[in-house]
Automatic annotation (TrEMBL):
This is Phospholipid-transporting ATPase. Belongs to the cation transport ATPase (P-type) (TC 3.A.3) family. Type IV subfamily. Its EC number is 7.6.2.1. Residues 482-491 have a biased composition (Polar residues). InterPro entries: ATPase_P-typ_cyto_dom_N, ATPase_P-typ_P_site, ATPase_P-typ_TM_dom_sf, ATPase_P-typ_transduc_dom_A_sf, ATPase_P-type_domA, HAD-like_sf, HAD_sf, P-type_ATPase_IV. It is a multi-pass membrane protein. It comes from the Eukaryota. It comes from Blattamonas nauphoetae. Keywords: ATP-binding, Magnesium, Membrane, Metal-binding, Nucleotide-binding, Translocase, Transmembrane, Transmembrane helix. It is found in: Endomembrane system; Membrane. Residues 494-542 have a biased composition (Pro residues). The keyword rRNA processing does not apply. Residues 482-542 are annotated as: Disordered. It catalyses: ATP + H2O + phospholipidSide 1 = ADP + phosphate + phospholipidSide 2.
């Protein structure tokens, strides 16, 4: 990080930089040509299996220890390490060619007075680059100019944040005085755009100065800079609004000129490309301790062999002189220990690790190839993606599911349903099909109902089109017509750009002459207008009296229906971050072009208005009838904004575009321009957005839209009620509470609510705000905090004018999926930022909370009520008082409308929570015991907690334990009003206190990323909010319903297959290697080997490994359809029942039993074997071939016995294993260089009837042994899986194809 201290200094237009910055080369390769071999070898040495084989090879090269042929120990080392070296080489070559492609992309950089084409890797900090439309931005740059109006550029940031909508960037206004845009010509024939270089070069030559900015950091939304121009006295403050990030694409902009500020590894994309910490399966931990057990067993065998040899040598050496000639000492004992390691090294199935990695890797592709987890309607976006193979079996052991609500349980297809303005509720469902309407004034109601004379909370329900008609036909002609101008639809067009994060400049001219001066302070009803303050500034010298209208300005009367209607629609129309990506769509909305009308029969009507060109339907977002599809025309990071804009646009209120100083709209086919004074952007901390525009009368109006919990406390009525001194009129207070009542009603119906507020900004206050904001934006360090503080100081004394209710319908089969997962024993948590009532309603509709479930509320407001009630009632249990049976949503205990202070600020909540949890736990446990005695359900509970209460709970380990215990006794938890970081905190809380369980987090948006990374298994849904969650997840799916199949089918199969592979591997090694122990004792610990060295090495590595890998991929213990019908199977096996200490010991005992049987039966058959033709009895080598082949056939039978779902591939794997064993045996017995001692020994064995009789006898005996074990487990162990299969077998045979579910 080069530069001065905390800042980076870049010179512009003054030659080379004073500091050397890093190059723009992208390098993702791990190795160079000279470091590949040593580093790759070092990586291979980190693997336990490779180290184990290398140790065995090294010992086997020492004379006196090399019990087996050194060649047989070298081959596994070369094989395993060779595979690793080749894999590293292939992967790194792929990275190398990808880097080469990226680094050599041609880029135009300004050097030596002209633009030259150079490779991207040659860019340096301080270069001026010219970027064309649809090109990738080659480095992190500051936008200087573009070919678009007001130097605006549009970028696609999909590669960075996963969001597909375009982001608007613009250069600093000061640059417009130096670079007057990029001059260009347009070819009238082809439409191609070319720059006028002769005009551009002189402008670039005048661009000289110094840029100071922050050092490189990983925060994508953080950038602060200061451009000091040599020709300007004041510096220009730069922010993220001017930053173009590497990896983004320039869209809908012909050319953009930018200054490079960060390159190479210091770009934000590279800084964020670091891998997250790895996740490992819990089965790996079980595998580790099982390996430790086997290693301890190996040590026992080593000490047993060495100790017996020392004992026999020292005590019986005189009787057996061939053993030794001298007494053995400690050194000899250590030497024999090493010999024992070589002798028993196959006791540890080192090939298991390689087989597991191969199997997991292929399983990952099986997940992606499952068509039942693919949404074909979405093309490539509908595919399942597995980004890791380490967690495949974890999917079968999930205990807790943490789910986002919006876009995860819901479809994220927002539908604007209702709007409340206090006096009326407007319902879009009441709108009738559009009819041609004449240009006449339309009133909302012929007989409007006055609701402010009394305290009525009942609002009129009207069609939303009536609100649109009121706005267009009565409000717009009155409020948007400038009295001082004629025929002009724009107001104050020459304003400077808006301040805020995107645009810092704020030098506003005084209001236009001939207009009334802007009101100061908070407006109130005409009858309640406060007297003007004493410190009112004198009117300007050129001030003229206001033009007298025929009627008083009714929009100052806040109780007038037109007042709320005007400002409510304005807020929806102006306060958002949506854009129109297609320029053709923008021209269509402006009326510059038109789409051809739909065909009539086989003929098309070409009625095109004059001076307008027709465009093909395929190039526009219109339906078959030529009607505009606004849901596709508008693009935004928030689906709520698209829903709101689409509804009003269908009623002739269309948003068009926003520049740095204006907002363009189309009202009833007439274009209007709102001067943009300031923009206060949305952040996750603020949870609201505000804009300040100048209206036709010259006043500055702030419009705010966002979460009701963040807006309501800023309203005047709320502030006065909190202070206990309400100064507003009764009508204003009643209107305020009517809107709050509508928010509760909308939430109770499951709608997402947003509050809308406004405020008149006096000119004096605006000047103070401009000065503070300018000071804050000149800071390089702490700019975001200082800017946010300026925003907070301006956003107060708000007028609540309305609220919206947006419906987000549930995803397909969401209730059925959640119901099944609950029956699987999973504890489901819904984590959302919505209101309590909204979240609880979704909990009911999605099936988490059923009608017989008791909702338990642990919220900020309910806890205060609980505390007050407990004070009155003493120490009696308040379980029945606090809990309400959810027989109907009206019974749900809602918090009070006005949010109270946060719980972590109220120390009095800690004790009530602890007492409440104690009461709930004791009562729930008592009910559970009573229900068991009466054989009935004790009543399930569902916890509803908000972020305020959770802040208190997570601060105490005692409260966390009690809360989690209560949650596990219930069916689920609904966490409301929580921020994105609280989601991760909740997951971390459960993981840290419940280390024995596996958690899963699923979400679809950028606010779910931290939660997904924190959980054991992270699932991302590729939805409307982008692919941020999908990109960081372990597995990505298209719909929530696919989670069921992913867990209960693939999760169960993966865990079953992997655990079977581990048990089988231990069994086959023990059944073969335990014979060495008996043979060691039988030969007086001489470490004599009865097998060929190559047979010992290949038995574990090659002969018996192929079938188990195939089985690991394809075997099925239960049909898929039965798993999807029987949730109890998953519930029992989610604890890892397929691989426990009991099953591990069982397979160890089976391996020892088979090995004991093979050894002693082999001795019997060998002692009573036949005599060869030359009169000799077959010796040691014949015994080795016979028992080794018996071990292979015994292992193969277990493979057959354990396989429960035969396919052609499993059959091929079995046959291939036999062929490899036969070919390998023939090679060893024929090629003298491979097996000198075993020359033709296999042929002798294959020609002996005793050999075949022994193989048949041992195979049948092993078959009987395993059959007895299988039926004992099936009939007496009470296995749910076995009972499910038995139930199925009684009614039908095992299907070759899944039977369709009814």
């Amino acid at each position: 990080m080069q530069g001065h201290g905390d800042n980076r200094h870049i010179t512009v237009g003054k030659g080379p930089q004073s500091h050397k910055f890093c190059s723009n080369r992208v390098q993702t390769t791990k190795f160079s040509w000279w470091s590949y071999l040593p580093l790759s070898l070092f990586n291979q040495l980190k693997k336990f299996s490779n180290l184990y084989f290398i140790l065995n090879m090294g010992l086997n090269l020492i004379p006196g220890i090399n019990i087996v042929s050194p060649t047989s120990s070298i081959i596994p080392v070369i094989f395993l390490i060779g595979i690793g070296l080749v894999t590293d080489l292939i992967e790194d070559l792929r990275r190398f060619y990808a880097d080469k492609k990226v680094n050599n992309v041609p880029t135009q950089a300004y050097r030596d007075g002209s633009f030259q084409t150079i490779p991207t890797l040659e860019l340096v900090v301080g270069d001026l680059v010219l970027i064309k439309s649809n090109e990738e931005i080659p480095a992190d740059c500051v936008l200087l100019a573009s070919t678009e109006e007001r130097n605006v550029a549009y970028v696609n940031t999909m590669n960075l944040d996963g969001e597909g909508n375009l982001k608007t960037k613009h250069s600093h206004p000061f640059l417009s005085t130096i670079l007057h845009g990029l001059p260009f010509d347009t070819n009238e024939t082809t439409g191609a755009v070319s720059l006028k270089m002769d005009e551009l070069r002189p402008q670039i030559s005048t661009l000289k100065g110094d840029l100071h900015c922050l050092q490189p950091n990983r925060e994508i939304n953080q950038f602060a800079g200061r451009f000091e121009f040599h020709s300007k006295s004041e510096p220009a403050s730069l922010s993220t609004a001017q930053l173009l990030l590497r990896g983004c694409f320039l869209k809908n902009t012909q050319y953009a000129l930018a200054l490079v500020v960060y390159t190479g590894k210091e770009t934000k994309m590279q800084l964020n490309s670091r891998k997250s910490k790895g996740k490992f399966s819990r089965l790996n931990r079980r595998l580790n301790w099982s390996v430790l057990v086997m290693f301890m067993l190996l040590l026992f065998y080593m000490f047993l062999g060495a100790g017996l040899q020392v004992y026999l040598n020292n005590s019986q050496g005189s009787d057996h002189p061939y053993l030794a000639t001298e007494t053995m000492n400690g050194f000899d004992f250590a030497f024999q220990l090493l010999a024992g390691f070589v002798y028993f090294h196959n006791n540890l199935p080192t090939s298991l690790f390689v087989s597991i990695e191969i199997g997991r890797f292929i399983q990952m592709f099986f997940l992606q190839w499952d068509h039942q987890m693919r949404d074909e309607s979405r093309g490539s976006d509908g595919k399942m993606i597995a980004r890791t193979s380490n967690l495949n079996e974890e999917l079968g052991m999930i205990r807790h599911i943490f789910s986002d609500k919006t876009g995860t349980l819901t479809a994220n297809k927002m539908d604007f349903k209702r709007a409340s303005l206090g006096h009326s509720v407007f319902n879009t469902d009441l709108d009738k099909p559009p009819r041609p309407r004449v240009n006449s004034t339309v009133s909302v109601k012929s007989e409007p109902r006055e609701i402010f004379n009394g305290m009525s909370n009942t609002c009129e329900h009207q069609a939303f089109k009536d609100l649109a008609h009121l706005y267009l036909d009565e409000c717009v002609p009155t409020y948007l017509s400038n009295p001082s101008s004629t025929g002009n639809n724009s107001v104050s067009p020459n304003l400077p750009p808006a301040p805020g994060l995107p645009s810092p400049s704020l030098d506003l001219p005084p209001p236009p002459t001939g207009l009334p001066p802007p009101p100061i302070g908070l407006p109130s009803p005409m009858s309640d207008l406060p007297p003007p303050p004493d410190d009112l500034p004198p009117p300007p010298a050129d001030f003229s009296p206001p033009i007298q209208l025929s009627a008083p300005p009714t929009y100052l009367n806040r109780l007038d229906s037109k007042y709320n209607a005007f400002h409510f629609i304005n807020a929806l129309l102006l306060c958002h971050e949506a854009v129109i990506e297609s320029q053709l769509d923008l021209k269509l909305l402006r009326g510059e072009i038109t789409a051809p009308p739909p065909p009539i029969g086989n003929m098309s009507v070409n009625a095109i208005p004059e001076n307008k060109s027709s465009v093909e339907l395929s190039n526009l977002h219109v339906d078959a009838n030529g009607d505009k599809v606004f849901e596709k025309i508008y693009q935004s990071t928030s689906p709520d904004e698209i829903a709101l804009l689409s509804v009003i646009a269908k009623r002739d209120i269309c948003y068009l575009s926003r520049t740095v100083d204006t907002i363009e709209v189309n009202l009833k086919n007439r274009t209007h321009t709102f001067p943009l004074v300031a923009l206060l952007p949305f952040t996750s901390e603020r949870r609201r957005m505000s804009v300040i525009v100048r209206l036709a009368d010259g006043t500055n109006r702030l419009y705010m839209k966002g979460a009701d919990s963040s807006i309501i406390p800023l309203c005047t009525v709320a502030e006065q009620e909190k202070a206990g001194d309400v100064m507003e009129s009764q009508g204003i207070v009643e209107q305020f509470h009517n809107i709050l009542a509508s928010i509760d009603d909308f939430s109770r119906d499951g709608l997402r609510t947003l509050a809308v507020a406004t405020r008149l900004i006096p000119e004096k206050e605006l000047d103070i705000f401009k000065q503070k904001l300018k000071t804050a934006q000149e800071q390089l360090v702490g700019r975001e905090e200082a800017t946010a503080k300026c925003f907070d100081e301006l956003e107060h004394n708000m007028e609540l004018v309305g609220c919206t209710g947006v419906e987000d319908e549930l995803q397909e089969d969401c209730p059925q999926t959640i119901s099944f997962l609950k029956e699987c024993g999973m504890n489901i948590w819904i984590l959302t930022g919505d209101k309590v009532a909204t979240a609880v309603n979704v909990g009911f509709t999605c099936g988490l909370i059923s009608r017989d479930t008791i909702p338990v509320y642990i919220t900020d407001d309910s806890l205060k009520e609980f505390n007050e009630t407990r004070v009155k009632m003493g120490k009696e249990s308040l379980y029945t008082e606090h809990v309400k049976v959810g027989s109907d949503t009206d019974n749900l205990k809602l918090p009070s409308r006005l949010p109270c202070k946060k719980a972590h600020e109220d120390a009095g909540l800690t004790e009530p929570i602890q007492i409440l949890l104690d009461d709930l736990l004791s009562e729930k446990i008592k009910r559970e015991e009573t229900s068991r005695d009466n054989n009935n359900d004790g009543g399930n509970i569902a916890i509803i907690a908000d972020g305020y209460a959770l802040n208190v709970i997570v601060s105490s380990a005692v409260l966390v334990d009690k809360f989690l215990k209560l949650a596990e006794l219930g069916v689920g938890v609904v966490c409301c009003r929580i921020a994105p970081m609280q989601k991760a905190l909740i997951v971390r809380m459960v993981r840290s206190r419940r280390r024995d369980i596996i958690s899963l987090a699923i979400g679809d948006g950028a606010n779910d990323v931290s939660m997904i990374r924190e959980a054991h298994v992270g699932i991302g849904i590729k939805g409307v909010e982008g692919t941020s969650a999908s990109q960081v997840s372990d597995y990505s799916i298209a719909k929530f319903k696919y989670l069921k199949r992913l867990l209960v089918v693939h999760g169960h199969y993966n865990f079953y297959r992997l655990s079977t592979m581990i048990k089988y591997s231990y069994y086959k090694n023990l059944s073969f290697c335990t014979q060495f122990v008996f043979y060691l004792v039988y030969t007086l610990c001489s470490f004599q080997v009865p097998y060929d060295s190559h047979f010992i090495s290949f038995f574990n590595l090659l002969y018996t490994s192929i079938p188990i890998i195939v089985t690991m991929l394809l075997d099925k213990d239960i049909p898929e359809w039965l798993l999807e019908r029987q949730p109890k199977i998953y519930k029992q096996y989610r604890n890892g029942k397929s691989f426990t200490i009991r099953t591990f010991i069982k397979w160890l005992l089976l391996g020892w039993a088979v090995a004991t049987f093979l050894f002693f039966s082999g001795m019997v058959f060998h002692n009573y074997g036949e005599v060869s033709k030359n009169g000799t009895v077959e010796g040691l080598l014949f015994y080795g071939v016979m028992t080794g082949t018996a071990a292979f056939t015994g292992v193969s039978f277990v493979y057959l016995w354990k396989t429960q779902y035969w396919t052609i591939l499993i059959f091929i794997g079995f046959i291939l294993s036999i062929l490899i064993y036969g070919v390998g045996s023939i090679l060893v017995t024929v090629v003298t260089s491979l097996g000198k001692d075993f020359y033709h020994e296999f042929f002798h064995a294959f020609a002996s009837p005793v050999f075949y009789l022994y193989i048949l006898f041992t195979t049948l005996t092993v078959a009987v042994l395993f059959t007895i074990v299988y039926y004992f487990e099936r009939e007496f162990c009470g296995d749910v899986k076995v009972r499910a299969i038995n139930t199925y077998i009684k009614g039908a045979r095992w299907p070759h194809k899944p039977i369709k579910q009814s």
